Amino acid sequence: MGGTLGFVESPAQLLNVVEWGAATAADIHIVVLGPGDPGTRFQLHRLSELVRRDGFRVTWAEVRGGARSAGVLARWTRQVRVADTVVLGDPYAAFSHLLISAAPPDLRLVVVDDGTATLRYAEQWADGTELRRWHVARRTSAHRIVGHRAERLLGRRSDRVELFSAMPLDTELPVTRNAYAWVRSRFGPPRLLDGTDLMGSSLVETGVVAPEAYLRGIERLIADRAVARYLPHRHESREKLVAIERLGVRIVRPDLPMEVFARKGPLGHCILSFPSTVLHTLPLVLGDVPVTIEALAVDDDWFVADARAEERAFIHGI
Questions:
Q1: CA-to-CA distance for 171 and 123, rounded, in angstroms?
Q2: Which helix (H) or strand (E) holds 126?
Q3: Lowest pLDDT segment from 130-139, 197-206, 229-238
Q4: Bridge partner list, 151
Q5: Helix H segments across 148-277?
Q6: CA angle, residues 300, 130, 21, in degrees to nearest 5
């Protein structure tokens, strides 16, 4: 039967599978493995509408909870068995591991950017170590059970896998550079505002940065850098955003991945961001726009007391 399948669970993953499809002219069927988070689901539905208008085939699959979900997952596992290429948005996800556990011997695997996790993945592929997210100390027993074959296909210097990425990678993995050509041709350039935009961060929600320290840092930036708008990460808590709004800044929730949201505009003439994927992607997306994109450091005293050295090093290295 053959064919190319793409599996995604986040808006950024969907965007980057679309970019891969546009760059390669591949006839790809993209499957959204519906997440539980409402904000993520909303952005995924919005982006799905846009990419379908450009001719991409996007199917929504509910795979979380219940016998019916198990049947949906089984259906797509059968499709993987007869596919030529599978494009994954997340090389760490248990659902991705379940799906490719049925992979045929000659299946081609492409991993697209899932943010800064791509840096971590490339390192683990090269080192032959267990595939594990930077902010997770250890994997669950369920992940270990379903991930054994996936580890051999995706990690341990496997020659079955290649990357499609905009991240600065020094790796022996075959890499095709993502220039965000689809986004740049499809949207913008954006109208620029007079004020400064601050990109939100989910480091507090990840459990690495202390909430009080983060809020104090935001308050200083509002005062010192004339921040007019705060653009939250989709995982930021409502309580934290209420506290930030009380500091005197306007909260503007992106309804699309930041690369698309920024390209559509409007956008501040200066963009500030803590360590994040956007520091690598927005210069590509906004290369023809006279904006300033500036990286902000996470001070050592922002980390929670029990933050691991591995976590601190990863954030400082982004």
A1: 8
A2: helix 117-127
A3: 130-139
A4: none
A5: 148-154, 181-186, 203-206, 211-225, 238-245, 258-264
A6: 90
Distance CA 135, CA 167 (A): 19
In the block, which residue shows the tokens 């993502």? 178
Name the DSSP class of 94: H
Domains, the chain, with CATH or none:
4-178 (3.40.50), 189-317 (3.40.50.11110)
Q: How far is CA 82 from the centre of its chain?
A: 27
Nearest to 103 by CA among 73, 72, 122, 79: 79
Contact, 201 vs 233, CB < 8 A? yes
What is the rounded CA–CA span in Å between residue 241 and residue 208?
18
> Is the Cβ–Cβ distance between 34 and 41 less than 8 Å?
yes
| Rounded average pLDDT over 86-107 | 88
Would the pLDDT of 137 be above 70? no
Over residues 29-55, the mean pLDDT reads 95
| 158's tokens | 């496997």
On the question of pLDDT at 266 being above 90, the answer is yes
Rg (CA), the chain: 20
Q: How many CA atoms lie within 13 A of 191 on its CB side?
A: 2
> Where do we find the tokens 């007079």?
194
- Cα(98)–Cα(93) distance, integer angstroms: 9
With H, G, I as helix, E, B as strand and everything else as coil, classify residue 5.
strand
Q: Kindly give, in sequence order, each residue whose CB lies less than 8 Å from that of residue 236, ignoring residues fewer than 6 positions away.
A: 200, 201, 202, 204, 205
Please give the single-letter amino acid code of residue 6: G
Mean pLDDT of the chain: 89
